[in-house]
Amino acid sequence: MRIAIFGAGGIGGYLGGRLSQAGEEVVLIARGEHLEAIREHGLRVDSIKGDFVATPALATDNPTEAGPVDVVILGVKGWQVHDAAMAMRPMIGPETFVVPMQNGVDAPAQLASVLGERAVLVGLGGLISYIVGPGHILHAGGEPFVSFGEVDNSTTERTQRLLRAFQNAGVRANIPSNIYAALWGKLAFMAANSGIGAVSRVPSGQWRSVPESWEMAQQVVREVLAVAAGQGIKMPGDAFASAIARLEGSPANGTSSMQRDLMEGRPSELEVQIGSVVRLGKEAGVPTPVNSFIYHSLLPQEKKARGEFPTEEEEE
Predict the structure, then answer these.
(1) 3-class secondary structure for 16-46?
(2) CA 277 to chain centre
């Protein structure tokens, strides 16, 4: 398959590297110093599953240069999805499909609004991985996985082909019977892990050790699952237990990307991971008091990172 990785960061870079290693024709869409380093030295991935250097078939910042591909794996941040969808249009042929790997539940609809429903799958992935330098990805923890499926949960040849490609690359992949339940199940974990981590500003092992913080995290999970039900998503009976087990099993020294971005003054996925729970809860008439507290506590910092407050000079 000819596979484009649009956004060669933590998850996109790792998946693209593994697929390239396995012999797939991989096109990396990257930019700046990261792109230049990949072009010069390949993509270096230091991983708990074995270090490697991948040489993509093409590395570029120009989707027109890439041309039509079989599939696009979208690895940008959740708040960059719409702009990415507009930019990737030169790569979308009649049979091309896009698999979003974003946190939250909004990406498929955002992509479909630009590219059409037929071009979009529902997808999710997970691992603790990030860029540590130009052309250099560190996979620091977590068993990498991807899940994806058609918007109507049907079985198709194109999803089976992509499944085989990931499996051949040694990436744990599956096509759930209900991709939306998988998507909301991940959000239940992420909202708790990112939200409590961001307000407490400590690694997960530390906030999990405080009973009151741990109870807040559990309430976040309950609220997310209630909103899912309010949105008509049929969740499995063990959804709560599964999210809690994943929180308990996450590395004690781990922090989420949203937490790190907020703590370092960068724009984050606050709107995607927590704001969407509040927004969709209101839409469904489901109260979300703990998620609302977290969201509105962090919103001023998010606005500051996005330059939405006047500078000191402007205030004078």
Answers:
(1) HHHHHHCCCEEEEECCHHHHHHHHHHCEEEE
(2) 16
Domains located in the chain, CATH noted: 2-177 (3.40.50.720), 180-305 (1.10.1040.10)
Looking at residue 256, its amino acid is: S
Handedness of CA 266, 76, 179, 247 (dihedral sign): negative
- Amino acid identity of 137? I
What does pTM read for this prediction? 0.90
Task: Please choose, from the candidates 2, 9, 6, 129, the residue with its C-alpha nearest in 3D space to the C-alpha of residue 57.
Answer: 2
Reference 217, options 246, 192, 199; nearest CA is 192
Nearest to 149 by CA among 126, 127, 173: 173
Answer yes or no: are the C-beta atoms of 131 and 17 closer than 8 Å. no
Cα dist. 32→8, 52, 83 in Å?
12, 22, 17
Mean pLDDT for each consecutive 10-residue tract of the chain (316 residues)?
Answer: 93 93 94 93 91 93 96 93 96 96 94 96 89 90 90 95 96 95 96 98 97 98 98 96 95 90 95 97 98 98 93 60
* Nearest CA-CA partner of 85 in 7, 148, 150: 7
